[in-house]
Amino acid sequence: MTTSGDGEPALRAEVARWSAALREVEVLEPWLTESHWDEHYWDDVAEQVADDPRSRADARGARDALEDALRRAFPGASLVSENGLYRDRLGERLDRVVGLVVSRRSADRRPPRSW
What we know:
Structural class: mainly alpha
Number of strands: 0
Distance between the termini: 37 Å
Oligomer: single chain
Strand content: under 5%
């Protein structure tokens, strides 16, 4: 799965969910994201997570896929809190990202209400 070319709407929606959740929770130190990247700075990581089949299996698989994508995005940086790259309570932040994506994915699959 990739988002190149015309792409599949479901995949584009999944990438958008991951990117939005990463921007909302913000796992990186603020000085990295505020001065160097635009609103699409998480899209590459989001695409890697969405391309990983584990991200669709369950919350644990999604967390593993997210961690692997972050390792690829920032090679040599340990996934630990307050190391100059990642913010405090990194584990909680990653769980929150996964929770947001899973919740939004479920909400997007619900049929619209008819009154």
